Amino acid sequence: MIFRKLYISFLEFILLVLSLSACKQATTPSMYQPVSAPSRTLSAIEIMSIEGITAIRYILYDSTVYIGSRSDSTFIPIAEFLIDSKHIKETDYNGDKRITVYDLRNNIAWNYYSGQLTYLQLPNWPTPFEEGIQNCLGSWLQGPSRFLHTEYIDNKLCNVFSDTIGNQEYVWIDHCLPIQEWIFARTLTSSRIITVRKRIIGINISFPDSLFEPPT
User: Which among 107, 102, 96 has a CA at the least distance from the CA of 82?
Assistant: First the structure.
């Protein structure tokens, strides 16, 4: 009788171990699924919904390294972006800081440069607004991509993917947002690596409408 009880206990222990092992095997693959950025072919609403972004402000930096020659790899700020579901504002950091705004709320687009305000006559409105969101927040990889590894960029954990031509994209896991692109560019005379990075200033914050009003 005692042996039978021990035998039953032993079987129960084995079943428990097998059960836990099966549970672990079933859950381990789903514990981490590489998250890629949404395609630029999706609409602005779809991209922002997937990323859980209602508004974002960031500064775009870039760095160029020429292969086989000396070059300055320091990141240089090139533009600042304010984006929400109705607006895009780009402030170019080159020269006189050109400002371009797409205002879906008021169905206007304008440009301010060298003290002159110009209202843009854009065909197929609001297509330029849609394309702006797609270019700013969607994936830039070409064709099928493959997962490489995870890496921190500006203290943000990212999945790193590459495409068939060697470009790489760093996708901030928390928001499926591409915050860095690593682009290999080749010409007849040189090869270079261009790195473009978004440095997030604020996310899902409320922008006052006055930020998107043209200067008087």
Answer: 102
